[in-house]
Amino acid sequence: FGVCSFEAPVQALREMGRCCKPGGAVLLLEHGASSLAPLRWWQAHRLNRHVDRWGCYWNRDIEGMVAESGLRVVSVQRRHLGTTVMLRCEPAKGEAS
After folding, report:
1. Residues 74, 89 contacting (CB under 8 angstroms)
2. Per-residue pLDDT tens digits for 55-92
3. What are phi and psi of 86, to 5 degrees?
4. Is the pTM of this model over 0.85?
5. Distance between CA atoms of 29 and 76, rounded to whole angstroms?
6. Distances (CA, A) of 44 to 5, 88, 94, 96
7. Which residue of 20, 31, 59, 80 has the fewest CB atoms within a 10 Å radius of its CB?
């Protein structure tokens, strides 16, 4: 877990892709916005309290940020009412160092 705490998460994901070895993968285990609408509402409702207490934006669209960063999702799994996301990603072609 870490993308939830970065002030510039898309930039951090881009840097992960840039630093990835050729043929390597970026593995992410993150918590983010639930795939269930009622829980997603509750996460948004409690966001400020959660950020103040834990420094974590727990309702971020992790898959959306990964796509925006240019990383290519190879596999994705969700657990814990859709709040935990496990992603295996690859850098865009020609991006790995």
Report:
1. yes
2. 999 999 999 999 999 999 999 999 999 999 999 999 98
3. -110, 120
4. yes
5. 10
6. 16, 26, 37, 35
7. 80
- Map the chain to HEC letters: CCHHHCCCHHHHHHHHHHHCCCCCCEEEEEECCCCCHHHHHHHHHCHHHHHHHHCCCCCCCHHHHHHHHCCEEEEEEEECCCCEEEEEEECCCCCCC
CA atoms lying within 13 Å on the CB side of residue 39: 14
Strands 84-90 and 72-79: antiparallel
| Residue 71 CA: distances (Å) to CA of 7, 22, 34 | 19, 13, 21
